[in-house]
Amino acid sequence: MTIKNIFMSAMCSACIMISNQCIAKTDLENLPSYETWLEHASYLEKFWLHKDARGVPEGNFPTWRCNDGTLRNQSLCPYERDIGQMQHLTGIDFVRMNTRQTFAYGALFNITGNKEALRLHMAGVKFLLEKIKDKEGGYHVLLEKGEPLGWPKGAPFTDYRLARTSQDLSYVLMALSMNAYLTHDKKIIDELREAQKYIYDTYYDKEKGIIRWCFSDTYFDKKEQVELVAMLDQLNAYLLLSYRLMPDTYKAEWGKIIRQTIKDMNKNFYTKKLNRFYGCTHDKSCFDTENGRHMDNGHRVKTFWMEYLAALALNDNNLANFAKKGMIQTLNGALTKNKNDWYGDDLQRGADWWVYAELDQSALTLALSNDYDMPDTLNQWVHDFTDKEYGEIKNFGLKTWFWRNGFHSTEHALIGTILSNAIRAKQCTDDKCRNNNTTTLHFAPVDSNDTNFTPYYYSGDITDVKRDGQTVSITFTNVDLPKAVK
């Protein structure tokens, strides 16, 4: 072996050498089985199918519940001593949590085929379009007893729309993008196009190349804020998942929107010296690499991951290589020494639930193409973090509040299910092994003859289709990275 090969082997953990390149080869014991993922999804469903999760009317999903699933009812839960200022907000429902829950039901149906999850997903979409959509433009972002709320008394403005952040508006569309993925409903796709146009027409500052945060100061937000997530979450919430669903006459335009958003993000927030993104740029605290706003490993890897998925869909090799490098560097820095847990930031503090999920999902994506050796972090999540008594993930404090709902846990389960099977299949040496590592996902197409579906962001060959009334179960083989959108 040459000096070069010895060096490259030392740089990779569990890799094989192909043409003098180090190719990662994931230890398959680090990937939970298909059955384990389905069991994990059933524990997530336990929390989200609880009677108190459904809302009154159904679809008006509550922001605030106790960790046993019951409604909080504007009070502390029996086992709590204090939840700080949040207690004063428990009478208000945040639409971004309603729509994340709607997404969660769709993701759970996609994994398990549970029609009750699908029914609640559809109820959430119906409530969104009938109650949350603002006839004067955009969407409401706060509710009280199922009705739109301007803002708590004392707000220093009269026009409620001025207080809405561009991020909150993007999160409304998370529910619709999941619905479009499951159904291919043209009406929902048109709604996404209309909403995207509203957000960019209203908030995009072409001269500065940023999406503005909001237009009036509130208790939570200031109009001078310049935030990475104002742009990143347009990609994350709806632009990427709905890209290949756009009508052929609009795909090129949608692709331009994605490309310009990434170009602006990289121009305004990326630092080559640190190979990372600043979470904001409006004051000097934003540039504190240890404690600055959104300088955690979650936002860092999520930004690179979104850009990587976008690059593959756009067939942009330069962007793909840039994003891959950023993902690998972030993952390497975030992985703990025992390689079964993640650090949340450069100070090596523990990762929050959503940071852990984003790191797992990014690592799985790279492991799919042998660019990263998947560490043993998934087993801890599905075995140790899962609440088997009440459902959901139990290790990260409150299960529901105005910044936590079912999106991250269910997306993690969906990607974990798809890519664990796909990575195993790639290491198979016979057809029996490959057939045992196919993935079946469930959809609800508005056109019963429609089978033009993908395994979430990724690509795959359809080998079996089973219909059951209005739903269809599709089995995928050869699951791989996203293909270019044409």
From TrEMBL:
- InterPro entries reported for this sequence: 6-hairpin_glycosidase_sf (IPR008928), 6hp_glycosidase-like_sf (IPR012341)
Q: Where does the signal sequence lie?
A: 1-24
Keywords of this entry: Signal
- Superkingdom, taxonomy of origin: Bacteria
Xref: Gene3D superfamilies: 1.50.10.10
Protein's recorded name: Cellobiose 2-epimerase
